[in-house]
Amino acid sequence: MGVRKAVKGVGDFLVETVGEAVADVVLSVLACVLLGLLALIAHLAWSFSPRATLAGAGVLSLALAHGAWVTFRDPAKGRGRRGLAAVTSVGFVLTAATAAFLVLYAPGSCGCL
Asked: What's the first-to-final CA gap in the chain, in angstroms?
C-alpha cells in the first residue's frame, strides 16, 4: 500500500512540474510576441506619421492618467463610474496588467532585451 502512495505522489509531482514548465514557456513566448507586436505598431505608426504618433501617444497618456486618477481617488457617495470615467479606468487597469505581464516575463525570455 505504501509503494502505490509513493508512486502516485511522485507521478503527481512530475505532472505538476512539467505543467509549470510548459506554462512558463507559453507565457514567455506570449510576452515576446506581445512585445514584438507593440514594437511593430510603434515602428509602423512612426513611419506613417511621426506627428500623429506623438499626438496619439499624448492623448493615450492623458487617457491613462485620467483612468489612474479615477481608479485611485475616493468615489463620490452614491455614484458609480460612468461613461468616460469607466472607459479610462478599464483602459488604465488593462494597460497596467499588460505592463506587469511584460515586466515579469519578457526580460528573461526575449533575447533582444
From this structure: 52
Residues in the chain: 113
- Rounded CA separation 78/45 (Å): 42
Q: Are 92 and 64 in contact (CB under 8 A)?
A: yes
Q: Report whether 52 contacts 77 (CB < 8 A).
A: no
Candidates 98, 108, 100; CA nearest to 37 is 98
Backbone angles phi, psi at 78, to 5 degrees: 80, 5
Does the pTM of the predicted model rise above 0.85? no
> Over the stretch 45-84, which tens digit does the pLDDT of each residue have?
999 999 999 998 999 899 989 888 888 887 766 566 678 8
Neighbours of 96 (CB within 10 A): 14
Residue 68 has a CB neighbour count (10 Å cut-off) of 17
Cell of 106: 519578457
